[in-house]
Amino acid sequence: MKTPVQLSLTQSDGSPRKVIIEPVLEEDDNGSLQNTGVYKIYKDAFDDESALFTEPLEINDINDELSDKDNPDYLGKIIITEDDKWKYDGDLLGDDEQMQVLKYIGE
After folding, report:
1. DSSP output for 78-103
2. Beta strands in 1-107 (DSSP E)
3. Could you tell me which of 57, 105, 46, 49 has the C-alpha nearest to residue 78?
4. Which residue of 38, 54, 99, 102 lies most exposed, with the fewest beta carbons within 10 A?
5. Quick check: pTM over 0.90?
6. Measured between alpha carbons, how far apart are the two ends of the chain, in Å?
7. pLDDT (tens digit, 9 = 90+) per residue, 49-94?
């Protein structure tokens, strides 16, 4: 998996949780992007009726760097090691939701 995907997980109460799974990639010696085995998970909203801003910015400074710990949409990350072991680094996804993400990543 080399591009982010949208996925709807089923929570323990049966309700859906919409997420984005973003693979963390790194460049190899040849300049190709390779999977690191780390997948960041963020809240998402399908059909959220988002619109692009069409007015010019009032400031010229670009500040699009938001750390994961400060991002309210960050749900954690799943780390898969070379020996196919995995670990969830976070506390917002239940065990079943973690398994759903792993199943999707493995497909």
Report:
1. EEE-TTS-EEEE-SSS-HHHHHHHHH
2. 5-10, 16-27, 33-43, 74-80, 86-89
3. 105
4. 54
5. no
6. 9
7. 544 455 555 555 665 678 888 889 999 999 999 888 999 999 999 9
